[in-house]
Amino acid sequence: MADINEYTGAMKSTLPNTLIDQFQRRVTYLRLSVTDRCDFRCVYCMAEDMEFVPKAEVLSLEELYQIARAFTELGVGKIRLTGGEPLIRNNVMSLIKRMGELPGLDQLAITTNGSQLQRLAPELKASGVQRVNISLDSLNPRKFRHLTRHGNLDQVIAGIDAAVAAGFKGIKINAVVLKGRNEGEVVELVKFARQREIDIAFIEEMPLGLIDDHDRVLTFCSSNELQDIIAASFPLHPEGDPQGFSGPARFYSMTDSASRVGFISPHSNNFCHLCNRVRVTVEGRLLLCLGNEHSIDLREILRGDDYSLEKLKWAIVNAMDIKPERHYFDNSEAPQIVRFMNMTGG
Ligand code: SAM
Ligand code: SF4
User: Fold this and answer.
1) How do residues 231-267 score in pLDDT, each as one tens digit?
2) Which residues of this UniProt protein bind [4Fe-4S] cluster 2 (predicted)?
3) Nearest ligand, CA of residue 39?
């Protein structure tokens, strides 16, 4: 991790109201992890036995709010809450309500495994959350349980249906596809999304963290392969490169449905030149790139005796200088990044 003083020391005279990195990319999107804990243990995301961040090192709800406020005041218009499972954090709804009222925040979104949505979907909507991404890798209860280790498919489907009923602006299913496990289900998953008129994106597995369930080289399933399988049932029409706040998914429309099908392809299709985002882990580490370790410690600033929102904002502004140009995921066996996805926030 870089020394924050290196960055806070090199202060420009006036705080800017936009974040621009050294490659002239404007950062407008923050993914904020509110917990590393989860009620599932998805085989591609976590090992069976996980050590979580000690409670004392986890940012408080107030510290998370300060970070959200600093970013919005620096021109970040979209924040996605993630984790771990964001909806199992104690009192997370109080943070979400406050964030929903932040001036300058155009879009509040959340990524969830859906386990708590049946209970919380209406409250999330009322608190200003506009977009919800829900993970769903299989429609077979036994396979779903295997992939998530603890998940209950009926509960997640009920959560998705509660989200649909709550009327969010956008709902997207995220499915990580592993060869030999769930690649045979992609057409059924598209049908599931079409029935509900919601979007679905298929994600290539990323080499984050040392997992014990499978060899990622053997389970790799490329987006191109999936696209061919789906297009044989539903002709897909490309929407072009991701724009604005949208993520790295390449989206396709279908003439007979409002649903769109997306592919997130960190291996086979690199969108780093369009990157508009940074991440903050629940320990307060500002990660400048998902696939690199470049980061600075915001918690040290938040817990410093001389803390001020301005100091926090300067650290964020100056950190833009170390945002890397791109990641270099390849298909080698060893994870290039040892942190697990539940730390990074998807
Ligand atoms: N618990 C929530 C969930 O599952 O949606 C939010 C956090 S989870 C880390 C965010 C997203 O990352 C999920 O869609 C999950 O499928 C995806 N993910 C986790 N590990 C991954 C990996 N190794 N490669 C690609 N996607 C991964
Ligand atoms: Fe939990 Fe989401 Fe990771 Fe699955 S993908 S273990 S639900 S954080």
Assistant:
1) 999 999 999 765 554 566 789 999 999 999 999 887 6
2) 272, 275, 289
3) 2
Candidate from 40, 279, 340 with most ligand 2 atoms within 8 A of CB, to mutate: 40
Question: Using a 6 Å cutoff on CB, does residue 40 contact ligand 2?
Answer: yes
Tokens of 334: 């060893």
DSSP string, 208-245: BS--SS--HHHH---HHHHHHHHHHHS--EE--S--TT
Kindly report the pTM of this predicted structure: 0.91
Give the residue carrying structure tokens 């036994």.
142
- Distance between Cα 236 and ligand 2 center (Å): 29
For the chain, which domains are there? 4-344 (3.20.20.70)
Averaged pLDDT of the chain: 89
Q: What are the respective helix, strand and coil percentages of the chain, to the nearest 5?
A: 35, 20, 45
Ligand 1 lined by 32 (C-beta under 6 Å)? no
Distances in Å between the alpha carbon of 140 and those of 123, 169, 341? 29, 28, 24
Which amino acid, one-letter code, is at 190? V
* Residue 3: per-residue pLDDT: 46
Secondary structure (3-state) at 220: coil
